[in-house]
Structures are given as structure tokens and as C-alpha cells.
């Protein structure tokens, strides 16, 4: 279970692979990851392999997934930044127990990507799976685009979605609830990366009404919360 006093955050590759967001991404990692701040940052471990293959083969089927019409950043520069920031920005490799626990999602995600013609980049599947496991076991993921989350939904996960307007209401409603206020405060700080933020684990359970959580758990469904500014 997540320790709410240490906020683990995964950076979706879309924030690093796009030229227009890479600088702000690492600026925010430095700002929130320094001193006594309680944020720890991670990236999918398979992303390094994806970048290495791109450098070697000069092809980017997996990288293109995260661009969404954005101009790509320089892979060599990105790898250098990842190394430079390694004390506060670490690769996430799912434990063996997590791989077993989420084996069904791995299979369904594989089928979903195959259906969409995206499985030709198998490292993309591994990146997305690592991101999904982190979302469920460690909680927070920030992203520039919603594609990763959409693939999780298509692979069988349930998404409870909040708009910016709903977020503002939550801020006003949760000021007296310590746990909810902490989660909302984390989300507010993470909006410096991008307004598209997802969470699973304990924080998601805190924000979703108990009755809904009970129904989802009883049905054996996997779920997460997503804050999406484009949703009204």
C-alpha cells in the first residue's frame, strides 16, 4: 500500500519524447524532487531500451505512439538527461510478484495493441505495462496525452474521470478531510507537469465514493482515477 507521505510519480514518455515539453518536465522533476519535498519520480524501465533501439535502427514505431503530432525530442539528449537526473529520477521495473499479479492485464494489453496494429513495437507494450503496474501499485502518473490511459481502459480497466471543474469543487469540499486534502494537494502540484493526471492505489480509493469502490471490487474490476481538463 502507498505511503501517502512519499508520493511516487511516474512520468509518461509523452512528456519527455515531445520537444515542446521535455524542458519543463525536467525542470519540474528538479523542483519537486529536491530538498524535503516528498515526491519521487520514475519512468518505465523499458523506455531506455526503446530509445536505444531508435538510436540503433533510426526507426520509431514505439516513440511515435507518444508524440501525437508533436515534434520529437532528441533521444540522445533525453538519455543524457535521464542519466543526469538519476539521483531523483529512477527506472521502474515491476517486481516478479507484480508481473504475476497483473498477468491478465499484460495479456489483454497485448491483444489490444495487436488489434490496433501497434504490437509491432513490443517494447511499447512493455512500457505501457510497466506504466500500468506503477499506476496500480504506486499511484500517480502524469502525461501530456491520454493514449496510455485509453489503452488501459480498452484492456479492461475502469476509469473514473474528473474534469477541471470537478477538481475545483473537490478542492473546496475536501479541505477538512486530511487524507483527501493531501491527495488533492498532490494533484494540484503535479499539474505543473501537465493537467492530465491519473492515480490508482490508495489515493484513487480515497477519492472514489466507498459505495462505488465496493461495486468495482465486488465485480473484480481494476480501476483508476483520471483528471482530464478537456472533460466538462
What does this molecule look like?
This protein is of the alpha/beta class. It has 13 helices and seven strands. It has helices at 14-17, 19-33, 46-57, 61-65, 75-84, 96-101, 103-115, 122-137, 147-154, 164-173, 178-190, 201-207, 210-218, and strands spanning 7-11, 39-44, 89-92, 140-143, 158-162, 196-199, 223-227. Strands 3-2-1-4-6-7-5 form a seven-stranded mixed beta sheet, with helices on both faces. The protein has one domain. Helix content is 55%, strand content 14%. It is globular. Helix 3 (46-57) runs antiparallel to helix 8 (122-137). The longest helix is centred in the middle third of the chain and has 16 residues, at 122-137.
Amino acid at each position: 500500500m502507498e505511503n501517502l507521505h512519499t508520493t511516487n510519480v511516474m512520468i509518461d514518455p509523452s512528456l519527455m519524447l515531445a520537444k515542446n515539453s521535455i524542458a519543463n518536465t525536467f525542470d519540474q522533476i528538479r523542483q519537486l524532487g529536491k530538498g524535503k519535498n516528498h515526491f519521487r519520480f520514475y519512468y518505465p524501465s523499458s523506455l531506455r531500451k526503446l530509445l536505444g533501439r531508435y538510436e540503433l535502427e533510426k526507426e520509431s514505431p514505439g516513440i511515435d505512439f507518444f508524440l501525437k503530432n508533436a515534434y520529437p525530442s532528441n533521444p540522445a539528449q533525453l538519455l543524457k538527461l535521464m542519466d543526469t537526473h538519476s539521483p531523483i529520477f529512477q527506472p521502474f521495473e515491476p517486481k516478479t510478484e507484480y508481473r504475476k499479479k497483473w498477468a491478465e492485464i499484460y495479456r489483454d494489453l497485448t491483444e489490444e495493441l495487436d488489434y490496433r496494429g501497434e504490437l509491432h513495437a513490443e517494447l511499447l507494450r512493455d512500457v505501457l505495462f510497466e506504466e500500468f503496474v506503477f499506476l496500480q501499485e504506486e499511484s500517480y502518473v502524469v502525461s501530456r496525452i491520454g493514449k496510455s490511459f485509453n489503452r488501459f481502459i480498452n484492456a479492461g480497466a475502469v476509469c473514473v474521470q474528473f474534469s477541471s471543474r470537478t477538481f475545483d469543487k473537490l478542492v473546496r469540499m475536501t479541505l477538512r478531510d486530511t487524507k483527501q486534502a493531501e491527495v488533492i494537494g498532490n494533484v494540484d502540484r503535479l499539474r505543473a507537469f501537465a493537467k492530465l493526471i491519473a492515480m490508482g492505489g490508495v489515493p484513487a480509493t480515497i477519492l472514489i465514493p466507498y459505495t462505488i469502490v465496493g461495486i468495482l471490487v465486488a465485480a473484480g474490476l481494476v480501476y483508476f482515477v483520471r483528471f482530464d481538463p478537456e472533460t466538462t
